[in-house]
Write a structure and sequence with these properties.
heterodimer; A: about 425 residues; Amidase signature (AS) enzymes; 11-stranded mixed beta sheet; 13 strands; B: Histone, subunit A; about 35% helix; flat
């Protein structure tokens, strides 16, 4: 079976930046399945913008490894989804192409930065989509829109062709309405690629199992503390109760390094961004730079005009955190904090097989609610630890508060993505039954 | 404490343009974020040991790559098969 899929969605939530009305597909395990791809993942012959004006009109000459794999599996790539500019945001409001709205409540944000992918799935426009997760960008929108999203173990999915924001943290991962579909999409994209030198040859080939008898579920007190909406915490505790009902046992664990996690994360991601985003100079791609001006003048004028405020703020923060006299205080300390957090998780995983808590401290924000950058950053507190530690983490819907979806987050040991998928699957099957 | 002239200096270092009316807002936001980053002063521990870690390089052998035409396809200005950039001097 091979052919062409007609795709003319009613995109009332602004989930897509680009749609492919005639999407071709071939034979394979995903033959004819419509898949949306976040717009920071390179697609040959399809515009790829990262949600930024600085890449408007950029048409990659090659496919990312995950896109090659999708095509080989027969998927029809039907469009590129909206996102916070370069992935820098928690709401999809920093996109140069306008905000995406949350299908669960159009006056609310879908979360970010993979908000377009989450909204497209939640609205039923596609059954599955790819997102990327640097500090929660798959799990946050999955939680806010009421779908499932997996951030794989660092090194499990090739980042070749992903336009880099913060290399040491980010991973491409699957998003869908069910755990089973997330697992199916993961089976397609998690295959070895020597072009990503941080990758290990640990392909994912797994069918979810709902048997979690004897699974030890760690409950970190830090995930239920100050700043977490008590009603969100209650929904998540109820969900953990469901896991216990299925034969899992809970054990208290502690991640004391959490107190440094958010600051460490923002120092590291902005530092890496300040280096990665230097390539956007209007010379090799994107709208043309004025070659009559001097280099610095042309470069600064172009970047002022075409980068949004949040991107420029993060590039400047990273430049500052790496500058002479400050690198020891910020960047070096953040690396130590990161190592401490990784060791906290390793200790916790001696007593527990997975760790569970809320994905986000609250439900979805109103559009425009997080106008202050620091208050937006603080909402990432429960998702960034998994990126710092490089461990897999899934968000699965676990009820609603005031009609808005809540996400249960399940984290696992490095390269035990299968186990977090199974735990999420067991929960999902039980509450759906 | 970061001042408005610090913000202008950082923007210059980062080659990020900043407009005059953005400077006060960026300064306030930077100070709030850096106040929050002060928690890193309480981090205890050592950096990752470099011993035993080595770079892994592949052999320097040519591999398939983009053609010149593909490479230039997205460039804003080109001339005779080269990319045109602003003047450096």
């Amino acid at each position: 079976m091979a052919g062409t899929l007609d795709f003319s969605p009613d995109d009332r939530y602004n989930a897509f930046i680009t749609t492919c009305r005639q999407a071709t597909f071939s034979e394979g395990t995903l033959a004819g399945t419509a898949v949306a791809v976040k717009d920071n993942i390179s697609t040959a012959r399809i515009q790829t913008t990262c949600g930024s004006k600085i890449l408007e009109g950029y048409v990659p000459p090659y496919d990312a490894h995950v896109v090659e794999l999708l095509r080989q599996a027969g998927a029809a790539i039907v469009g590129k989804t909206n996102m916070d500019e370069f992935g820098m945001g928690t709401t999809t409001e920093t996109s140069a192409f306008g905000p995406t709205r949350n299908p669960a409540d159009p006056e609310r944000v879908p979360g970010g930065s993979s908000g377009g992918s989450a909204a497209a799935v939640a609205a039923g426009l596609v059954p599955m989509a790819l997102g990327t997760d640097t500090g929660g960008s798959i799990r946050c929108p999955a939680a806010f829109c009421g779908i499932v999203g997996l951030k794989p173990t660092y090194g499990r999915v090739s980042r070749y062709g992903l336009i880099a924001y913060a290399n040491s943290l980010e991973q491409i991962g699957p998003m869908a309405r069910t755990v089973e579909d997330v697992s199916r999409l993961m089976s397609v994209i998690a295959k070895y690629d020597p072009r990503d030198s941080t990758m290990l040859d640990r392909p994912y080939d797994h069918r979810p199992s709902a048997d979690i008898k004897g699974l030890r579920v760690g409950i970190p007190e830090e995930y239920f503390g100050e700043g977490v909406d008590p009603r969100v915490a209650e929904s998540v505790r109820d969900a953990i109760g469901v896991l216990e009902g299925l034969g899992a046992e809970t054990v208290p664990v502690s991640i004391p390094g959490m107190q440094h996690a958010l600051a460490a994360y923002y120092v590291i991601c902005t530092s890496e961004a300040s280096s990665n985003l230097a390539r956007f100079d209007g010379v090799r791609y994107g709208p043309a730079v004025d070659t009559r001006k001097t280099w610095h003048e042309a470069y600064q004028d172009l970047r002022l005009e075409l980068f949004g405020a949040e991107v420029r703020r993060r590039i400047m923060l990273g430049t500052f955190a790496l500058s002479a006299g400050y690198a020891g205080r910020y960047y070096a300390k953040a690396q130590v904090a990161r190592r401490n957090i990784k060791e906290d998780f390793e200790r916790a995983f001696c007593d527990a097989d997975v760790i569970a808590g809320p994905t986000m401290p609250t439900t979805a924000f109103r559009l425009g609610e997080k106008s202050d950058p620091l208050s937006m950053y603080l909402s990432d507190i429960l998702t960034v630890p998994a990126n710092l530690a490089g461990i897999p983490a899934i968000s699965v819907p676990c009820g609603r508060v005031d009609g808005l979806p809540v996400g249960l987050q399940i984290m696992g040991r490095q390269f035990e993505d299968e186990r977090v998928v199974d735990a999420a699957f067991a929960y999902e099957q039980e509450v759906r039954a | 404490m970061i001042t408005e002239s610090d913000i202008e200096h950082i923007a210059e270092l980062a080659d990020i343009g900043i407009s005059k009316d953005e400077v006060p807002e960026f300064t306030t936001q930077f100070n709030a974020i850096l106040d929050y980053f002060e928690v890193l002063d309480t981090v205890v521990g050592e950096g990752a040991p470099a011993a035993g870690i080595t770079n892994i390089f592949r052999d320097d052998e040519p591999r398939p790559c983009l053609s010149q035409e593909e490479t230039l396809a997205n460039a804003g200005s080109t001339e005779d098969g080269f990319i045109k950039a602003p003047r450096v001097m």
